[in-house]
Amino acid sequence: MIKDAFYSIGLSGFYFDDQRAIKAGAKEDGFAYRGVPLTSGYEAVRQKGESISVMLFLDDGQIAFGDCAAIQYSGAGGREPLFKARDLAKDLEKVVFPFLMNEKWSSFREMCQKLEDLRVNGKKLHTAIRYGVSQVILDTFAKYYKKTMTEIIRDEYSLNFEIKKVPIFAQSGDERYINADKMILKRVDVLPHALINNVETKLGWRGEKLIEYLGWLKERVRILGGDNYYPVFHIDVYGTIGIAFQYNVDEIAEYLGRLEKICYPYKLRIEGPVDMESKELQIEFLSKLRKKLKEKGIKVDIVADEWCNSLNDIKDFIKAEAVDMIQIKTPVLGSIHNSIEAVLYCKENNIGAYLGGSCNETDRSAQVSVHVALATQADQILAKPGMGVDEGLMIVYNEMMRTLRILKRKGLNVIDD
């Protein structure tokens, strides 16, 4: 099946940011940050994002490809260290390409499982490498069988439910006002992320700056959105609420209740209300918070991100009843079969499955993620890469609509209204 394997070094859709340094108060300097990096591997608080495009020549002349990419906040929340493309490309030549060329290609899922087991000096391949190579594996099967990647996934996992558009979640970056307007004008399903990653400048020491922002956002939706537009408000606070309220469960719950009232009639989700610096403590605190919210009748959804770094982590959060929704951060989980199985596990347990990822991915990894979301019918997918809204939204939306139309033409059970 495989005639040749090769790669190219590329850019990603955003930058690598040292989250620890930003939380510690690194000052913005134009688009850069002033300050000393605090996370191992970083040469600056903000530095360019990198990627590796892995390509395979197939026997019939077709070319399959996928992109290795890592998240913006690499090295944070228990995740793998900074992705340095040129250094890690050596692992492709040494270990991955011989595997792809010599292995018997039985099925997408089995190939991905074998990829996860590969070792370099006794260690697993970097998650970014596993992520990109699994994409090219999926694309190879799609090209070989002349099917969409969505169909390959559905066939592998025996999924037969109807296929429809998956709600898209756009992220604003620091331009949380202008970019929110863009989202509203394009009637984005879930918005705006808002990047509330600093207490002093973005949340407020009693949460007052986020209160002000949500009041503004609600009014903009009313003014620009028109009738019958009810997006979900999804805010990522990067643990800053925990810092501001000194990890007091009662005060945090009361604050979230205030936010819910401000946002009404729009649904509110809060991602990462606290960051406890370990998985066990994170699960324990979020479980307490979620229980407290239920006691008070507060219907704000708690979304987990940090410390959900593997399929097993996701299962642990769900078993502990710690969350309403999980961000399945695709580059962090390594091979995309893990993301597929994470979505399916969430759905089996009535937990929201948010197929996320990072602004720091590529157009290709975003396109492949669309097929994962469609095949598994995730509850929402991130518009990626980049922070400009329009570009990532276009990539994800257009790939989704193209695929839905193709599948409908093929006679699959598709709802593409």
From TrEMBL:
Which BP terms in the Gene Ontology apply to this protein? L-glutamate catabolic process via L-citramalate
GO-annotated molecular function: metal ion binding; methylaspartate ammonia-lyase activity
UniProt pathway: Amino-acid degradation; L-glutamate degradation via mesaconate pathway; acetate and pyruvate from L-glutamate: step 2/4
Residues binding Mg(2+) are D236, E271, D305
Identify the catalytic residues: K329
Q: Which cofactors, if any, are listed as required?
A: Mg(2+)
Listed under catalytic activity are:
(2S,3S)-3-methyl-L-aspartate = mesaconate + NH4(+)
| Keyword Transcription appears in the UniProt entry | no
- InterPro entries in UniProt: Enolase-like_C_sf, Enolase-like_N, Me_Asp_am_lyase, MeAsp_NH4-lyase_C, MeAsp_NH4-lyase_N
EC numbers listed for it are 4.3.1.2
Which residues make up the binding site for (2S,3S)-3-methyl-L-aspartate?
Q171, Q327
SUPFAM superfamilies in alphabetical order: Enolase C-terminal domain-like, Enolase N-terminal domain-like
One Pfam family of this protein, by short name? MAAL_C
Which UniProt keywords are given for this protein, alphabetically ordered?
Lyase, Magnesium, Metal-binding
- Residue span(s) of domain Methylaspartate ammonia-lyase C-terminal: 163-409
Domain Methylaspartate ammonia-lyase N-terminal as annotated: residue spans: 2-157
Q: Which family does it belong to?
A: Belongs to the methylaspartate ammonia-lyase family.
Q: What is said about its interaction partners and assembly?
A: Homodimer.
Q: Which NCBIfam families match?
A: B_methylAsp_ase
Q: What is this protein called?
A: methylaspartate ammonia-lyase
Q: What is the lineage of its organism?
A: Bacteria, Pseudomonadati, Dictyoglomota, Dictyoglomia, Dictyoglomales
